[in-house]
Specification:
CATH topology of the largest domain: TIM Barrel
Order of helices and strands: HHHHEEHEHEHHEHEHEHEEEEE
Strand order of the largest sheet: 1-2-3-4-5-6-7-8-9
Helix content: 25-40%
CATH class of the largest domain: Alpha Beta
Number of helices: 11
Bound molecules: iron/sulfur cluster
Amino acid sequence: MSPLKTVSALADAGLIPAERAGALEPVAARYAVALTDTVARLIDRGDPNDPIARQYIPSEAELRATPEERSDPIGDAAHSPVPGIVHRHADRVLFKLVHNCPVYCRFCFRREMVGPDSESALLPDVFANAVAYIEGHPEIWEVIVTGGDPFSLSARRIGEVAAHLAAIPHVKIVRWHTRLPVVDPARINDEFVASLLTPGVTTIVALHANHPRELTAAARAACARLIDAGIPMLSQSVLLKGVNDDVKTLEALMRTFVEARVKPYYLHHADLAPGTSHFRVSIEEGLTLMGALRARLSGLCVPQYVLDIPGGVAKVRLTSTDVEKTATGWRIRDPDGNWHAYPAGLRPLS
Ligand code: SF4
C-alpha cells in the first residue's frame, strides 16, 4: 500500500469517501496527515464513528479554532533554555529529539510543531548543545525523550542517543515516549530493543494508546519484547470525545494495559491545541469518569487524571479538591497552591 499521507491516498484506500476529499484538502494542508498500514487495517470502514478512524483520519472540524486554543498549549517554549530541551521541573527535562511521527494524531498537542515539513531530527550542533545542557545541570535525574515520536529513529540512532545520555553520570532514568508499538509493532524487533538498553541508566518506555482495540496481539507482543528485555512500561492516554469518553472503553483500555504488563500512568485531559475542540470532554465529565473507574477497578488499573495548565504553569493531577467550578468555567490549583482560571483567562486568581 502506498504511504497514507495525503487525502487522495486515504480516498484510494477507502478510508474516506471520495466526495469528502475536496473538503479535507485544506485540513491536510494545515495539519500533517499520516497513517501506518497497521492503523489502516484497524479502522472499521463500515462504522462512521469508528474510534480508531477518529484519532487519525482528518476532519473538517479541525478548521474550527476556538478563542482559548493556542499553538503551544502546554507552554514548552516558556521553559526551553536551548532548542530541543524543555526544563520545567528541576530534576527532569523533556528532550524533543525528532519533529515527525509515523502517524499524525488529529488531537496532537504539538500539532503546530510536528510534521514532515519539519526538520526530521535535531541537527548535530543542536543535539550536541542539548546534551551539553543536560551535562551542565547535575540536578537532572531523568530525561524524557519525546518529539514527535523518537521511536521513528533507526535502531542505530536510538543507540547513539542512549549512549550519550548514559554517559552523563547524574542522568539515571531515560524515559522514551512513543506510539510505535501500537502503530508499527514490527519495528520493535530485537535489534531495536537492544539499542535502547545501555548500561548506566534505567530505560523506561511510555506507550501512548487511547482505545483498547489499538492494543492488538502484535502491539502486545511488541510490548512483551521490550518488557522481557527488562524495560518497564507505562501508559499514557488522552481523554477524547468519541474515542474513549465512556467508562466501559476506559475500563477495557486500562485492563488491557495491565494485562500487557503496561502500568496505567497518565490519562491526560485534552490540551487546548488548535482545531481540537471536537475532541474535548469537560473536566466535570473527566472527574465523573475517573470516579467510576476507581469504583470498578483495582488500583493497579487506575491512571492519574492530569491536565497541563496552559502557558507552561504546571501539570496538575485533577481531583475534586484541586478544581472548582466558577461562573465562567473552572479554576485549578497548581502544586504550589496557586489557582488558575481554565480555560478562559490564564492569570492566577489568588
Ligand atoms: S504520535 Fe504523539 S507527537 Fe506524534 S502526532 Fe501523535 S500525539 Fe502528536
